[in-house]
Amino acid sequence: MSFSRPFDRRSKADRRAFPRYAVDLPTHLSVNGASAPCHVVDVSASGALLRTSRRLGIGDRLSVDLPHCGPTIGTVVRLTPSHVAISFRGLLVVSKLRDQSANA
């Protein structure tokens, strides 16, 4: 897994509360006990953008298996034809992921 510098795809008027980091992370998600492959595209302390073929809906609760963090609970907040945006229940320590992945 590699981290790049933080980026923000939105206008200055609509900045995110936490920096988002581009990642290249294949993993799995779980919804109602059913596992499905997914790919984490970017991550921040408060959420992530996933690519998956699993059909999900706004408000679905899921678990994403993040390296060095284990299963992380999130809620689907936005859907596009190719991606799923999730919000985490708590804040993720992104620097821990970045530091541990750099040492791997």
Briefly, what is this?
The protein has one helix spanning 94-103, and strands at residues 6-7, 20-31, 34-43, 47-51, 61-66, 70-79, 84-88. By secondary structure, it is mainly β.
**Count of alpha/pi helices:** 1
Structural class by sheet pairing and helices: mainly beta
**Topology-level CATH name:** Thrombin, subunit H
Shape annotation: globular
- Note the run of SSEs as H and E: EEEEEEEH
C-alpha Rg (nearest Å): 13 Å
Number of domains: 1
CATH superfamily: predicted glycosyltransferase like domains
**Helix share, percent:** under 10%
Descriptive overview:
With 104 residues, the chain is mainly beta. It has a single domain, classed as predicted glycosyltransferase like domains (Thrombin, subunit H). It is built from 1 helix and 7 strands; from the N terminus they run βββββββα. Strands 2-3-4-7-6-5 form a 6-stranded antiparallel beta barrel. A hairpin with a 4-residue loop joins strand 6 and strand 7 (84-88). The longest helix is centred in the C-terminal third of the chain and has 10 residues, at 94-103. 23% of the residues are buried.
What is this structure's SSE topology?
Elements lengths: L5 E2 L12 E12 L2 E10 L3 E5 L9 E6 L3 E10 L4 E5 L5 H10 L1
Antiparallel strand pairs: 1-2, 2-3, 2-5, 3-4, 4-7, 5-6, 6-7
Tags for this model:
single chain; 104 residues; mainly beta; Thrombin, subunit H; six-stranded antiparallel beta barrel; 7 strands
